[in-house]
Write a structure and sequence with these properties.
Order of helices and strands: HHHH
Number of helices: 4
Strand content: under 5%
Distance between the termini: 16 Å
Number of domains: 1
Largest sheet: none
Radius of gyration: 17 Å
Mean pLDDT: 78
Low-confidence stretches: none
Shape: flat
Length: 82
Amino acid sequence: MPYVPGCDILGTSEEIIFAATRENAANAGFDDSYIYQQIPLAPEKRDLPTAMFLNAEALAVFKTWIDADQKSPINNFFSLND
């Protein structure tokens, strides 16, 4: 399974351990260099049309999280022991 950096970043991991580089993954058929090239570009400059949708709904979910009295750390959702 290809590695997803966002999981560690969003999961607020204390460390990241990996065994292969982007180049190693590309050589195995998991070449995601295109994504790395596109994401920093302004949406209107990307090769594929990029649009935000359901923003109000997303903001409502974030507000629910912000207002919650009890929260589980997000990194619990990315546990390797599950």
